[in-house]
């Protein structure tokens, strides 16, 4: 006598049910992956407090000559950062500072 639990059920109903489940899981995963790149990047950024952000330079080190800084429309306007959330002043500094070039 065969053990019913150890048999692989290949019925059309079971295949369709499992296929629908896998499709639903795929849709949920894809929804998270299809977010825009800026939305994913913003979600991954650290807070200013965590990065010890300060509005003044650290010696000659400041955001406008950091690889992570994305400048604003003019050199004096606040920009953004690939590491720290929020508006970033060009003359500011944080522990994520990495000099350009």
Structural class assignment: mainly alpha
Helix content: 25-40%
Dominant shape: rod-shaped
Q: How does the major sheet shape up?
A: 2 strands, antiparallel
Q: Give the ordered list of helices and strands.
A: HHEE
Low-confidence stretches: none
Task: Give the CA-CA distance, first to last residue.
Answer: 74 Å
Q: What's the total helix number? A: 2
Q: How much of the residues is beta strand, in percent? A: under 5%
The Rg value, from CA coordinates, equals 25 Å
Describe this structure in words.
With 101 residues, the protein is mostly helical. The chain has a domain at 4-33. The chain has helices spanning 12-33, 37-44, and strands at residues 69-70, 80-81. The longest helix is centred in the N-terminal third of the chain and has 22 residues, at 12-33. The N and C termini lie far apart (74 Å). The relative contact order is 0.16.
Question: SSE layout and pairings?
Answer:
Layout: H1 12-33, H2 37-44, E1 69-70, E2 80-81
Antiparallel strand pairs: 1-2
Question: Any key phrases for this structure?
Answer:
101 residues; mainly alpha; 2 strands; rod-shaped
In short:
With 101 residues, the chain is mostly helical. Helix content is 30%, strand content 4%. Strands 1-2 form a two-stranded antiparallel ribbon.
């Amino acid at each position: 006598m065969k053990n019913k639990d150890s048999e692989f059920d290949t019925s059309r109903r079971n295949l369709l049910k499992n296929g629908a489940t896998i499709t639903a899981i795929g849709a949920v995963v894809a929804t998270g992956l299809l977010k825009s790149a800026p939305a994913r990047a913003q979600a991954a950024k650290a807070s200013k407090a965590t990065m010890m952000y300060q509005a003044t330079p650290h010696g000659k080190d400041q955001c406008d000559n950091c690889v992570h800084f994305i400048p604003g429309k003019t050199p004096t306007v606040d920009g953004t950062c690939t590491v720290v959330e929020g508006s970033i002043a060009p003359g500011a500094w944080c522990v994520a500072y990495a000099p350009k070039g």
